[in-house]
Amino acid sequence: MAKPYVHESSHVEPDVTIGEDTKIWYFCHVRRGARIGANCNIGQNVFVDYDVTIGNRVKIQNNVSVYHGVTIEDEVFVGPSAVFTNVINPRAFIERKEEILKTPVRRGATIGANATIVCGYEIGQYALIGAGAVVTRDVPPYALIVGSPAKRKGWVCRCCTTLKTTGTTGLCPRCGKTYRIDGESCHSEGS
Q: What is the CATH number of the domain that holds 15?
């Protein structure tokens, strides 16, 4: 394993943990207390706020701000210019740090370019948020979410392929994995 790489144009404040083989590219700012896992790729002009936790093998593309209150688990992909918020009713002249809402992004989820994730909602494991979507509610695991406001349009496999569904069964046409669909939830059959 190699030491983390931080480009000289980026600023990493004290008391930050960065895992092995992680790369932080141009013009990034990582605030105090942030924890970034191993084998991550943090693109150009990314802001990681104080006390944010980012898991292992995460890819955050250019121009993303990960604000306080957001937690990103392992193997998440965040597309370019995706937006996270952390206060539901901000005003420039009223400080609301005590009202910051938590936004967990679960393992393996993908957030498309220019998507907006309104704070206080959970993004389920292996969910796929389409480019430009505006998420205003919890997203179940394996859900394919698109639009503004975002709505579920189907289910995706762990390999990020849209499932072919029949009744209560989902089948991945790429890898052959099967899923059980129960109303507004989708569960992997086996591991």
A: 2.160.10.10
The model's pTM: 0.97
Q: How far apart are CA 106 and CA 71, in angstroms?
A: 8
**Residue 153: inside a domain:** yes
The DSSP call for residue 56 is: S
Tens of pLDDT, residue by residue over 70-98, are 999 999 999 999 999 999 999 999 999 99
Domain hosting residue 48, numbered range: 5-160
130's tokens? 């389409």
Identify the three-state secondary structure at position 187: strand
Half-sphere exposure (Cβ direction) of 27: Cα atoms closer than 13 Å: 7
Q: Provide the domain count of the chain.
A: 1
Under 8 Å between Cβ of 104 and 71: yes
Distance separating alpha carbons of residues 16 and 33, to the nearest angstrom: 5
